[in-house]
Amino acid sequence: MKIPSEPIGSIPRSPELVAAITNPSGNADLQKLYADAITDTLKHLEKTGSPVITDGEQTKSSFATYPLEGLTNLTAEGMRIDFEDGHSRQLPLLTSGPFRYGNYAVKYLTAAQKLTSLPVKQAVISASALSLIYPAAGIEGYSQAEFIADLINECEKDIRSCLEQGAYKVQMDFTEGRLSLKLDPSGGVLKHFIDLNNQVFDRFTKEEQQKLGVHVCPGGDHDSTHSADIDYAGLIPALFTLNVGSFYLQLASEPDRPKVLQIIKQHLKPSQKAFVGVIDVLNPVIESKEEVRDRVLEAAEFIPLNQLGTTDDCGFSPFCDDVSTTRETAFAKIKARIEGTALAEKELLA
Ligand SMILES: [Zn+2]
Asked: Residue 150 C-alpha to ligand 1 middle, in angstroms?
């Protein structure tokens, strides 16, 4: 396809898998369930016609916390992220240094590559999200500066190992970008997050940066958001200063898409591609391919064709226990994205 189309990452886990994860003392063979889930997810993603697939994050605890799996220097009482519907998610806090990942994303990539011949994309968490696990009161004998230096090294290692393993793209999830403007409307925290993530991206060559991407959204958990009320216009100019080639942008669920597209148009650099969200992952209604086509045509009025791609607004289940969307709905929506993008391409290239 001339207009590239890529998923974000996560696919809902099956009810059986969620039950086994949330009740590990049960009799279920979790490792077998995980293996079956990856195989089944790849098979269904292949059937959607998607030219690039992911492992559906079937074995990740969440998009943000996988590097913390197995670590013993954490407590539970970290930053809390509140969602519109009243539920919240909480990050852990680091209790001692040095900070090293317990788990790297390349593990998921390698497992998926063994089971498909299609290109596999890998999502990783941002340095900025993980920077939030350092306690405000500090850690004796392990300064914040030492932590940040370790964090940047670890985040680079997480990305580089995926590139070396042949990832089609490596996408950094940056959902806290828009959220930061809620916590600090001055934009100071956002600027700090952008600088931190660019310290990671700047360790890669220009060619490598073309294989790197960033995903932003207002959050998507239990069909609810954490920062949809924050104006996208505050995020976009800073966002495109990130030194990567691809941007995966929630857009389908925006109330005023042309306004957002106009701002993207103003700030997108020639070396960058905008993958616009044409699937609303929080809406259970499955988009028709014609609806998707129209969203692509709308975006093409603002974004040059050679810089335009399509994606879903977000992963379908960034946290492992989110079953607000069924697997069947997720696969049907992805199929609509692929078919609708192809329809638009036909019109645009005619
Ligand atoms: Zn997202």
From this structure: 26
Residue 267 structure tokens: 């700030």
Q: 10 in a domain, yes or no?
A: no
- Per-residue pLDDT tens listing for the chain (350 residues): 689 999 999 999 999 999 998 887 777 789 999 999 999 999 999 999 999 999 999 999 899 899 999 999 999 888 888 898 989 989 999 999 999 999 999 999 999 999 999 999 999 999 999 999 999 999 999 999 999 999 999 999 999 999 999 999 999 999 999 999 999 999 999 999 999 999 999 999 999 999 999 999 998 888 899 999 999 999 999 999 999 999 999 999 999 999 999 999 999 999 999 999 999 999 999 999 999 999 999 999 999 999 999 999 999 998 888 888 899 999 999 999 999 999 999 999 88
Does any domain span residue 288?
A: yes
pTM of the complete model: 0.96
User: What is the domain-level CATH number for residue 196?
Assistant: 3.20.20.210
What residue numbers bound the domain in which 331 lies? 15-349
DSSP code, position 116? -
Tell me, yes or no, whether 4 lies in a domain. no
Q: How many CB atoms are closer than 10 A to CB 136?
A: 7
- CA–centroid distance, 244 to ligand 1, in Å, is 17
CA-to-CA distance for 286 and 125, rounded, in angstroms?
28
7 within domain boundaries:
no
* Number of structural domains in the chain: 1
Distance (Å) from CA 251 to ligand 1 centroid: 11
Q: Encoding tokens for residue 172?
A: 């950094």
Cα(311) to ligand 1 centroid in Å equals 11
How far is 239 from 250, CA to CA, in rounded Å?
13
